[in-house]
Amino acid sequence: VLTSWYSQEVKNAAVILIDKWEPVLGVKVGRLSVQKMKSKWGSCNVQNGNIRLNSELAKFGKGALEQVIVHELVHLLEPSHSERFYSLMNEFLPNWKQLKALAAAE
Fold first, then answer.
1. Cα pseudo-dihedral 90, 94, 97, 102, rounded to 10
2. What is the pLDDT of residue 64?
3. Which of 6, 34, 42, 104 is the most buried (most CB within 10 A)?
4. What is the per-residue pLDDT across 6-27, written as a single tens digit (0 to 9) for each?
5. For residues 55-91, b (16+ Cβ closer than 10 Å) or e, as one string?
6. What are phi and psi of 19, to 5 degrees?
7. Reduced to 3 states, what is the DSSP secondary structure of residue 76?
8. Alpha-carbon distance 85 to 95, whole Å?
9. Cα 54 to the chain's mean position, in Å?
């Protein structure tokens, strides 16, 4: 029951954040799914734009979720963790490292 609630909370918040960031980045998400994941906060399929988020993000503040969403959306522009990827992260979400630390402190 709790995992289901976490998933719904993350999904509700993520929809709002995706609506905010899609036009900023000029990308379009295919499908959003939320599930409990063992080792990742999120993932994306660059071919179809599908985003998957970890339901455990419900345990952290909105900033941590926003950082993960922007991270995954930037992958739609740059699939690898290249210099360009981090340059885009710095451009669009300059405080992403601080926000990432919110979830990394677990």
1. -140
2. 92
3. 34
4. 899 999 999 999 999 999 999 9
5. bbbbebeebbbbbbbbbbbbbbebeeeeeebeebbee
6. -60, -35
7. coil
8. 15
9. 9
